[in-house]
Amino acid sequence: MSQLELTNRTLTLHRFPPMREESPLQAWDSADEYLLQQALPEGPVLVFNDSFGALTCGLGARPVWHVSDSLLSEQAAKQNLRLNEMDEDQVHFIDSLAPLPAAPAVVMIKIPKALALLEHQLRALREVITPDTLILAAAKAKDIHNSTLQLFERILGESKTSLAWKKARLIYSRYTAPQLADQPATTVWPLDDSAYQIHNHANVFSRASLDVGARFFMQHLPFDIEGEILDLGCGNGVIGLLALEQNPNADVLFYDESYMAVASSKLNVEVNRPQDMARCQFRVNNVLSGFPSDRLHAVLCNPPFHQQHAVTDHLAWQMLRDAKRCLQYGGELRIVGNRHLGYHVKMKKLFGNCELVASNAKFVVLRSVKLR
Fold it and tell me: What share of the chain is helix, strand, coil (3-state, %, to 5)?
């Protein structure tokens, strides 16, 4: 088991979901360690973007609010608290769109990959922190740029960086309430060749424009299915939105592990196809955990090949396996992916069949059917 000395406590930390044995990845990094070395005042701590619970566990018996847009990160933190015989009920888990508690003593931020999410979080903090709040942020040194520091200075106030330690760096900020213009809650852009206006919360993939893979996928979606269609890893929901239009006798389910993604999907149906809300279900979930087997008529998916900063295919594998389990016999999985990722090999191995629906220089659309 991997072990890490944190604040005089030996912790056992695991990634979540569990990785295959041949592809182990560490559940913390030097930025987590650097944060936990800092002297902290007494009082409640807000922890942002704690991927696998290293900070949440390392803070011990302090009152902690774990704030994340990722259900997987929340589940990882809970699992690691249990593994270390710590009381998960003492930690308050809140999602990225929930109100924050007032006047925290300490704020710890693992700087996320998406600067738009960081800006959303810093703006939310302005509503609850005080000049006495200790604000610490950390990341690998290569991931802290001038634009990162400028974001802290523009939204919170005076900010500075630490010396690098084990290739990690800290940002110290002090809240001085600089003047700041309001900003819309979502980014909005028109969907090509339609009357749809697509709304995107801060942490949605490709929030500023249509993802090129999704653009290609939209040209090759199934028509006239009767039953249940799942948009798996729905993001802003553009695939499910088009599935609603092209399959008027189907119910469409929007599932993602990101709270902001599911909220964006719901908003996009409400705004663009309010007449179809009764045909929709929106759920934050770990892929298809808890979903009944042999039920779905179709699963549509653009699988991710990274989790946070780590490049990995284990989430794609879990999506393919869960899709097969939850499809009824005769139901289809249809995905889009980069040509070089070789999803056809995985799909043929799982389903025993794989059809090339369409391809271009960069992407392929593949289809597998669940057979008896």
Answer: 30, 30, 40
Specify the 3-state DSSP secondary structure of 102: coil
In tens, the pLDDT along 290-340 reads 999 999 999 999 988 654 445 456 788 999 999 999 999 999 999 999 998
Residue 103's closest CA among 123, 121, 122, 126? 126
Look up the pTM and report it: 0.92
Using DSSP's 3-state secondary structure scheme, residue 318 falls into helix
Quote the crossing angle between the two packed helices 259-272 and 238-246, to the nearest 10°.
Answer: 40
Cβ atoms of 153 and 147 closer than 8 Å? no
Residue that has been written with the tokens 């196809």 in this structure: 273
Instruction: Please work out, in degrees rounded to the nearest 5, the angle formed at the alpha carbon of residue 314 by the alpha carbons of 10 and 294.
Output: 120
C-alpha 266/C-alpha 136 separation (Å) is 34
Among 33, 36, 29, residue whose Cα is nearest residue 51: 29
Burial 183-206 (b: 16+ CB within 10 A, else e): eeebbeeebeeeebebbbbbbbbe
pLDDT tens digits for range 270-283: 999 999 999 999 99
